Amino acid sequence: MIIGKDKSNRYLMSSLTRITDLENFDFDVEKLDREKWGHGDYVAARVTNKPNPLYQIEIPTGRMAELMEDDLIIGVFGKRAATLEGVGDWEAIGDNGQMHALTSAGLLGKATSTSLLLPRFMSLEYEGHVLREGRKQTMRDFIEPVTATEFDSPVILMVGTSMSAGKTTAGRVIIRELQKAGLRVVGAKFTGAGRYRDTLSYGDAGAAAILDFVDAGLPSTIVPEPRFEEAMRYMLSRIAAIEPDVVVAEAGASPMEPYNGAIAIEALSKHVVFVVLCALDPYSVVGVEAGFGLRPDVITGPATNTTAGIELAEKLTQLPALNLMDKESLPRLREMLRAALPGQLGVTPTGG
Which residues belong to CATH 3.40.50.300 in the chain? Predict the structure, then answer.
């Protein structure tokens, strides 16, 4: 938490502030005219209405903090288009300043479409922009400098048929296996909507370093293509400087959703040695294959929760399907990883 210069307000930092120094140095909060608002702006908001289970905020450590009415948070203007939860946009905020926390990480905007299966998003009211010396603070202001470096590491790519398809879980399992084999692994999330605990879990699994699009100054990757291409170049340079043996890369959400997944996959394509498709159900695998032309090496996720799902997925796609939460599947996964990374996991495959 931090107290602003007026010493009268205490603000809870969302995890989207983790690239900043706002927790350690003072700032001002002041309302700005609407024409001065922009994507990636750091703003203060007041919690309104009675709390429900979604009235929580992820703080910079990744821990969840419960909120009460009238609490103040610092978040970021951005956009979200989650197929299973909700859609929202900072540009949809009206003159009354009423908005929502579109993610627990502090992605702020006006919800325009939400699932009836979930509690309502946390309601907020615009208090003002974060300023220093009269200048608004944005995510771009806090991007760590990096030297442009050629990326040349093998990539294990995880994509999903939608959000909540099991990508992060699959990534943790794969990182653990690679780390146990002695490889230096970087876990990276290139697209999606900001939430730190997913990326942190890659470090918990044994990744030597973790990185995501927040490090590149984006609250989510629903941005114009040139801006996302710039962010991809930045992230790849950051990873290249670490010199990993292998990168386990997640393209959040689905490549067919508006998170620039297609651009991320194209940027990684010549380095990809293994593709994991995480699916909610066997039929959605066919949809991604047909709609995006993506041919994975293995299918996992909720579609493989049972033997019936595995059998149907394999029948529909003629691809191997594994439940990576079942330790009985790990020997076969290891064989696949050895084939994808010849010589790096102790066994060099033979044959064509």
Answer: 155-340
